[in-house]
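Bumping my old thread because nobody answered last time. Still need a sequence for this structure:
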């Protein structure tokens, strides 16, 4: 629901407040090179390489086994607190990695979005964000309808 609200708000700004949307778009276009430069520096950064390695370790050795229920069979019930602690300690690594990847993808996405819908990039961004949110909602509905059987 959060992404739909953001997307619809951006589309509304594009329709209702066109001068404001144009200012946002020109600001993004002006900073597109800076965003790309930051993204490429991020890819060359040793800290980011270490973050990628840590992310892979966390996902494959903690998160996936946790969600698959592997810890339930291996660890005794009195160590449930350890499971939760590991899950909460690994969450910031996952969030930091996802934000870093979003920055890298956003740098290329802004350029593509500007070429795709010249003069209406903010509204198009709103439509894309809303579509992503709707895909998540469809997944939830299908899980509720067919997952309980």
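Sorry it took so long. Here it is:
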């Amino acid at each position: 629901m959060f992404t739909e609200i953001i997307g619809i708000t951006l589309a509304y700004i594009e329709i209702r407040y066109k001068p404001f949307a144009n200012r946002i778009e020109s600001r993004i276009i002006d900073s597109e090179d800076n965003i790309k430069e930051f993204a490429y520096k991020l890819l060359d950064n040793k800290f980011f390489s270490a973050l990628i390695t840590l992310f892979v370790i966390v996902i494959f050795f903690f998160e996936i086994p946790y969600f698959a229920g592997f810890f339930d069979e291996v660890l005794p019930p009195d160590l449930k607190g350890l499971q939760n602690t590991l899950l909460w300690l690994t969450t910031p690594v996952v969030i930091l990695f996802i934000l870093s990847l979003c920055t890298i993808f956003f740098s290329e996405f802004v350029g593509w979005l500007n070429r795709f819908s010249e003069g209406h990039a903010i509204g198009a961004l709103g439509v894309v964000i809303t579509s992503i949110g709707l895909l998540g909602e469809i997944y939830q509905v299908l899980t509720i309808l067919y997952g309980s059987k």
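Residues 2-147 form one domain. Let me know if any region looks off to you.
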